[in-house]
Amino acid sequence: MLNDLYQQLDPIAFAVGPLTVRWYGIAYVLGFVCAGFVLYFTAKRWKVRFDIDSLLTVMICAMLGVILGGRLGYVLFYGDGYYLQHPLEILATNHGGMSFHGGLIGALVGGIVAARLTHVPYLTLADLGCIAAPIGLFFGRCANFVNGELWGAPTDLPWGVVFGGAAGSMPRHPSQLYEAFLEGIVIFAVLFVLSRKVPPRPRGTFMGLFLILYGTFRIVAEFVREPDAQLGYLWGGWLTMGQLLSLPLVLAGICILAYAVKMKLPQKGVAE
To answer: Which residues does the record give as a 1,2-diacyl-sn-glycero-3-phospho-(1'-sn-glycerol) binding sites (predicted)?
Structure first.
């Protein structure tokens, strides 16, 4: 059973002397490495002028954007005033606290910098990044499960998991794994299959679809996921911060996809 598997998991992968390596950190590394491979080979298939130096530039910009944006997003969206009273805690990333929505904003800003440095059109770079991003989401949600965080609502379904600690002793939905499947496997499968078409679909297509799919899946998953304790439900006993932040993603995705369909700009490595 899933609960039996969870009870055998340890958030710490291994320790060497004072160095402790957690599965969460490994998930970040694996996510970025695998995403880099997908981004690079997809760019080659699309015949985008993209070499190893360009890949490293993009990955560095993306990593800085995701980490800085994810942390600042958590402080702003989920801090509930705590970090105003304890500003030094903003730097205490070892205490947890990352926001996908903040990380997404950071990645998009980092993409602007990367596009200028690599001379790849921004929407092409964003499309490539959105095809690769679900891999990182998959590893990240699996790490959330191992850590026993972001658990779901109580359930009597046979795959319920007892997370213990603040989650109590009742079985709960393994909402982390629901999100790993929807946000990671499903979105990647859809975008990767679509990316196989040659010539590739117009610029902005993959970014628009990613935002629509992620926003929709996140809104749905939040119905069986417990809201952050410091915030609770924002309205009506069901609206969460995750749902509130995801709705604009769906709307933005629809607008970007409509723009891509209308303009039909080809994917290009260097603007001519």
So the answer is: 141
